[in-house]
Design goal:
The protein is of the alpha+beta class. It has helices at 58-69, 91-103, and strands at 2-7, 16-17, 20-28, 34-52, 72-77, 83-90, 109-118, 127-129. The protein folds into two domains: 2-41; 42-129, Alpha-Beta Plaits (2-Layer Sandwich). It has two helices and eight strands, in the order ββββαββαββ. A hairpin with a 5-residue loop joins β5 and β6 (83-90).
Length: 131
Amino acid sequence: MIVNLLYRGVAQPGESARFGTVRSVVQIHSPRPVLVLSFLMRIARRFLISGIVQGVGYRYFALRAAERHGIVGYVRNLQDGRVEVVAEGESEAMEAFKRELYRGPAAARVTHIVEEVLEPTGRYPHFGVAY
């Protein structure tokens, strides 16, 4: 999702903010200087993956998928046999990441994924495996 915002200040394409990444900057000539910033929206999700997902390389599969799509957050095994993924990233990248979570590694059998919408926090500098 791309959102345009009016902004009074300085910004450059590629700059990151809690709510997204600056995609482009356009200056509008008016009595007061105004910039229109185009943002790729940053979203956050929590996924609970069920099936044969522990002991089959699922966490490291998710790690590699997150790195490919520029997703930050973590993946961890839960005591009940599920895998939890907390992820933040741009909306289009998150959709591609979610498709890979459904597929899983060759030895896994994903039977169900619960998806919970979260507020992006910006607290994760990278994606990692939590223990």
